[in-house]
Description:
The strands form two sheets. Strands 1, 2, 3, 4, 5 and 6 form a six-stranded mixed sheet that branches. The protein starts with a strand and ends with a helix. Helix 5 (123-138) packs across helix 6 (144-154). The chain has two domains: 4-115 and 159-176, 3-Layer(aba) Sandwich (Rossmann fold); 118-155. By secondary structure, it is α/β, with parallel strands linked by helices. The protein has helices at 14-26, 38-43, 61-67, 87-97, 123-138, 144-154, 166-176; strands at residues 4-9, 29-32, 46-54, 57-58, 75-82, 108-113, 115-116, 157-158. Helices cover 42% and strands 22% of the residues. The protein contains seven helices and eight strands. It is elongated, with a radius of gyration of 17 Å.
Amino acid sequence: MSSILIIYRSQYGATKSYAHYLADCVGAVAKSYKDVKKKDILDAKIIIFGGGVYISRLSILKTVKRFQKHLESKKRYLFAVGLTDTAFEAIPRIEAANSDIFSYHFKEVYYYPGTFDVSHMNWFHRTLLNMIHKMMAKKEHLTDEERALYDAINHPQDKRDMQLLNPLIESLEHDIYQ
């Protein structure tokens, strides 16, 4: 059994792909938040939580809260996956929208760009984005953010980059051999 557990929450697959790639790199076990049991938490020395960002809210924090009382002696990391291109842009927004993030005492928080493909989204998200797209098409001038969303709706994007995991892998290797 690995001493590293990766718990992820992935709606459209980008977070899951990062979690499994990371698990392969460091010899960890990656599990969906739906499959994690208390024993998994108790057996791990290092726990990495990964989740998607939706309107700056981190989906995985409910799972962190659920297991919080079992995390005291664990080294904890967090990674978020979203549409923003850089961690420099994303992390301040995530921290502002998830004020409880600091109470979980993550050793590090990382951010990775994900994917955006309306055709793979559920009915609700597709419908919402199609309505937004129609509203933006009627606007004379779009802000940079609106233009980026408008373009993403028309052109699927996959901005995943597994090389961005290297700083997290280095931190984990340091913790493993410490």
